[in-house]
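agent> Task received from the user: take the single chain below, predict its 3D structure, and emit structure tokens. No templates, no multimer pairing.
agent> Plan: (1) validate residues, (2) run structure prediction, (3) serialize to tokens, (4) report one or two observations.
agent> Step 1 OK, no nonstandard residues flagged.
tool_call: predict_structure(input=
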Amino acid sequence: MKYQNILIAIAAFALLFSACKRDEKPQTTTDDAQISGLYSQPANGKQQTTLAYEIPAASKHVPEQILKRMGYTVSYNSTTKNPNWVAWHLTKAHTYGNYKRNEEMFREDSTVSKPRATDWDYYNSRYDRGHMCPAGDNKWSASAIYQSFLFTNICPQNHGLNKYEWNDLEILCRDWARKYGAIDIVCGPIYYGKGEQKTIGRNKVWVPDAFFKVVLCRKGNNPKAIGFIYENKGVKQKMSEHIYTVDEVEKITGYDFFPQLDDKIENRIEAKANINDWN
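)
tool_result: status=success, residues=279
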């Protein structure tokens, strides 16, 4: 009996020591590996990359941490606890897939420092967890759709906007990707800076005043681009009344979109926005 008590004491000490070591330095988990994309591969076995000209160039100083995911790239802002922008190359193939979303997939992003957005911040906030790069653009891969639910790809979004106008725009972009073979998309939150910024949760996640989305089609000899801005409100917003040129969105956000395009092409297509050219 005495010998058994000694063994139990040794085992208990080993467990306690192991727990202390874990507290001192957290170990990388399988989820962390999936988040960083180190071990995740799309269905075709090729790593998805984000092309350089998709990445906006900032014309103002904002906190930024670039996070490269399987299906998109994020510029994360540690002050707002939201993305500054999210950019991705949406191909026709990536608008299809068998991987489905579920509401339990939302999760913290352990690759950014605390404080950071959590599920509890959204609880009873009356705001949806609004995707920037939508789950519907990532259902071609289990890892891609998993990463689309990280809170670094999410913003507090009015339920009506998320369910209707923003969703309609996401569907339209997938239709364009199927029609033209591929498009480039950048979207993100807008803060007008009028008064004290509204936040939600213990981690004070900023609530955007509006959202922007710019879309580029490079097919053939006639590339085109178009922009949209929707207020973060639960009121009916007709798409035709929320179309902007890319130049106009750049002035409001302070970003230079698609900077790697030839200057003559960029200047021409970013000054025009006609949705009839896309239909």
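agent> Step 4: summary for the user.
Helices lie at 2-24, 30-36, 119-122, 142-147, 159-163, 165-180, 246-253, 263-269.
agent> Done.
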